[in-house]
Specification:
The structure holds two protein chains of two kinds. Chain A is built from 22 helices and eight strands. Chain A is α+β, with helices and mostly antiparallel strands. Chain A folds into four domains: 275 residues, ABC transporter involved in vitamin B12 uptake, BtuC (Orthogonal Bundle), CATH 1.10.3470.10; 69 residues, Winged helix-like DNA-binding domain superfamily/Winged helix DNA-binding domain (Arc Repressor Mutant, subunit A, Orthogonal Bundle); 53 residues, Iron dependent repressor, metal binding and dimerisation domain (Diphtheria Toxin Repressor, domain 2, Orthogonal Bundle); 70 residues, Ferrous iron transport protein A (FeoA) (SH3 type barrels, Roll), CATH 2.30.30. A six-stranded antiparallel β-sheet of chain A has the order 3-8-4-5-6-7. A two-stranded antiparallel sheet of chain A has the order 1-2. By secondary structure, chain B is α/β, with parallel strands linked by helices. In chain B, helix 3 packs across helix 4 and helix 4 runs parallel beside helix 5. Chain B is globular. Chain B starts with a strand and ends in a 5-residue tail after the last helix. Classes of the chains: A alpha+beta, B alpha/beta. Chains A and B meet through helix 9, helix 10 and helix 13 of A and strand 5 of B.
């Protein structure tokens, strides 16, 4: 650890750290627009094609930072022009044109620099230009990088609106008098400056990774462009600095180390991003499937009654779900007070409410399909089966309104009315409150059990005691005991 | 008041003629339905007036000027499917774009711009969606975002390209109500429209187009069977059968 700190405080290391931080931030910021404008390939092309610029600049000016800069920018612009010319005048696909030009430029650069080494007797290491090097960052390089960073980041801040709207919807930018072409060339110019700044430390092959990986990571983490840009800048900074430190520790070229760090951030975000991450998405879709299966159980339960009770065997048969899963769902449903789970499965008042809103969704949607979309009765059931789990109350109310509050669905079955919240099951009520037993109960067997206990419709009861074995009620002078299961099915009102 | 004047407009893509010799006077205070079969050049007419495409010939005058002089006062609502809806932008971000033409080059958006944008969201009934990412909206809500942006621009002339495609009935009602209100404020509105059954109900005036201008004027006198047959040809019989028109 101490050794590392000693190394990092040496002048060449400090110079490398400063350069890395600057290009990390700059690539993060610019990269967002490169990715959103689908210009990743152009970024890669521009970075490869500055190599011949380096070669010619060396012949003209020798080993000079400013010479490399000018040579690279000229090579970059030439490449951009050549690509555009081919795309507009020759019948070659756009991305093929990019590929043809940049590989040509790259090859000229590679041959040129190799030739210099062999024939010219000059030591100009090709490898350093391809994958970067920690050594050989001069003060001039730092100043140049600083200027380029200030220029590009400053431009993005000042001209944010123009970049945003031309990226989002170029046609609207045009109707507002913003020249999309100007913005495009402006961005290309910034891009070629940025690539030159990273030339020595990252190398031309990997520059594109630092442009697109941090910004793609940021796009997984936020839905707001300004935040995306800031997150991307931060990840770019972390990737380049951590990458540099790793490359010093393990004595590797810095470019690949930075790329590995950036890609690690990317995959972590791809897996664990709160909204777009694979892990949480999988969990959400698993939960959704569970919910749908439980709702299907409720739908089955409401079709059955005491005369024709629902059993586990029937459920596994109807729903095609294995026994173990069914048992798990039943346990969950009875713990939530939705069903009573015994040899026979029956719904509590709460369960009936939930099941009825599913039936309502199903039948309203079927009616809607027949009336508004002109589908026939045979076509609608499966679609409604699927959608009943997803339709929101808000949407259903709208459908209900549009259809003029129909009583029955296309098959002639009644559509349940929207459940009113006033009615609740007896067992969910507080003690010592006067409660009215409603005339409409969840099914006939509940009605007949109430009749046998002497509890007539529209009479009033008060709960005096609730235990796990029984619920004690008074009605006038009478005291009545009831099974908690039954109390969960009896619907009462406070009015 | 005359707001758009088109004289002898012709447009072709590659070698194919799309619009031929169009003469048109559009008056403010009206909602115009632009009607015609597929490939009739309806969207092209919009793009030509907006200066988005090159024309072969013709003079176009908007609000008494060349379009490039009055861009601030003209709003365009294109078809909503040519946008990347996964773009990291919120409803508010998009609606605020309507303020861009009112700003000088380095001038920043301020509180007044924001309150104009909020008002636009309120007018079209999506205030509660201001911070929502645009991809999380329904088709109808997405369309309303684009219209809110046009309102936020405080334009005088509005071009809407098929605003009712892929939207729910409620949104359609809200939009058409809003368009009529804007017309009452002496704005000019042009709407490319496909559903012939609602033309009479929605538009004061119609422009019937099929590469040439078939007819234009008050809906009552222009949207006639005779003109429609000229515009649609044999297609019209099919439209009758499928109940698109009565």
């Amino acid at each position: 650890m101490n050794d590392l700190i000693l190394i990092l405080t040496e002048p060449w290391a400090i110079r490398a750290l400063i350069t890395c931080s600057l290009i990390g931030v700059m690539y993060g910021v610019l990269g967002c627009f490169i990715v959103l404008r689908n210009m990743s390939l152009i970024g890669d092309a521009l970075s490869h094609s500055i190599l011949p610029g380096v070669f010619f600049a060396f012949i003209l000016f020798g080993y000079s930072t400013i010479g490399f800069f000018m040579g690279s920018v000229v090579a970059g612009l030439l490449t951009a022009l050549l690509i555009t010319w081919i795309q507009q005048n020759i019948k070659t696909k756009n991305d093929a044109a990019i590929g043809i030009v940049f590989t040509l430029m790259f090859s000229i650069g590679v041959i040129g620099i190799s030739w210099l080494n062999n024939e010219g007797g000059v030591h100009l290491d090709l490898k350093d230009f391809l994958i970067g090097s920690i050594m050989g960052i001069s003060n001039e390089d730092i100043v140049l990088t600083l200027l380029i960073t200030a220029y590009t980041v400053g431009s993005v801040v000042l001209f944010y609106r123009y970049l945003f709207i031309t990226t989002f919807q170029p046609v609207i930018a045009s109707t507002m008098g913003i020249s999309t072409k100007m913005v495009h060339y402006f961005l290309m110019l910034m891009l070629s400056f940025a690539i030159v700044a990273g030339l020595k430390i990252v190398g031309v092959i990997l520059v594109v990774a630092l442009l697109i990986t941090p910004s793609s990571t940021a796009l997984l983490l936020s839905n707001k462009l300004k935040n995306v840009i800031m997150i991307s800048a931060l990840i770019g900074l972390l990737s380049s600095v951590l990458g540099l430190i790793l490359s010093i520790i393990y004595n590797t070229p810095p470019g690949p180390a930075m790329v590995i760090v950036a890609a690690s951030f990317y995959f972590i975000a791809a897996l664990f991003s709160p909204e777009k991450g694979l892990v949480l998405r999988t969990i959400r879709s698993y939960r959704q499937r569970q919910k749908i299966e439980r709702e299907d159980i409720l739908r089955q339960a409401i079709k059955h009654d005491a005369q024709n009770p629902l059993t586990i065997a029937k459920l596994t048969d109807r729903l095609g779900i294995n026994l173990q899963t069914i048992k798990k769902h039943l346990k969950h449903l009875s713990e939530n007070g939705v069903i009573i789970n015994g040899n026979e499965i029956s719904l509590t008042a709460k369960g009936v409410g939930q099941a009825q809103s599913l039936v309502r969704a199903h039948r309203l949607w079927e009616s809607y399909q027949v009336q508004t979309m002109g589908l026939s009765e045979g076509q609608i059931h499966d679609e409604a089966d699927r959608l009943e789990h997803h339709l929101t109350d808000e949407l259903l109310d709208e459908v209900d309104r549009k259809l003029g509050y129909p009583e029955t669905d296309p098959h002639g079955s009644p559509i349940p009315k929207k459940s009113k919240r006033l009615n609740k099951s007896l067992i969910s009520q507080r003690m010592n409150v006067r409660l009215r037993i409603l005339k409409e109960q969840v099914n006939e067997s509940v009605e007949s059990e109430l009749w046998e206990l002497g509890l007539l419709p529209n009479t009033y009861v008060t709960i005096t005691k609730i235990t796990s074995k029984k619920v004690v009620l008074t009605q006038g002078q009478k005291t009545i005991e009831m099974e908690p299961d039954l109390a969960g099915q009896v619907i009462v009102s406070k009015k | 008041m005359k707001s758009i004047e088109v004289k002898g407009l012709s447009v072709s893509y590659e070698k194919k003629r799309v619009l031929t010799n169009i003469f048109l006077n559009v008056e403010s205070g009206n909602v115009y339905g632009v009607v015609g079969p597929n490939g009739a050049g309806k969207s092209t007419l919009f793009k030509a007036i907006l200066g988005l495409i090159d024309t072969n010939s013709g003079d176009i005058n908007v609000l008494g000027n060349d379009i490039n002089e009055v861009q601030k006062r003209v709003a365009y609502v294109p078809q909503k499917d040519d946008v990347d809806w996964s773009f990291p932008a919120t409803v508010m971000d998009v609606v605020l774009q309507g303020r861009y033409p009112h700003k000088k080059i380095l001038q920043r958006l301020n509180a007044e711009d924001r309150s104009i944008a909020m008002q636009a969201l309120e007018d079209i009934g999506i205030t509660d969606l201001a911070d929502r990412q645009i991809g999380q909206l329904s088709g109808g809500q997405q369309q309303r975002v684009f219209i809110a942006r046009a309102l936020c621009q405080q334009a005088e002339v509005f071009f809407l390209d098929e605003p009712f495609v892929g939207v729910d009935n409620l949104t359609e009602e809200i939009i058409i109500g809003l368009l009529k209100k804007l017309a009452a404020d002496d704005k000019t509105l042009l709407v490319v429209h496909h559903d012939l059954s609602t033309v009479e109900q929605y538009f004061d005036k119609v422009i019937l187009l099929n590469q040439r201008l078939i007819a234009y004027g008050d809906t009552k006198t222009t949207f006639t069977k005779e003109n429609m047959t000229k515009c649609y040809g044999p297609q019209l019989a099919i439209l009758h059968k499928t109940g698109m028109i009565g």
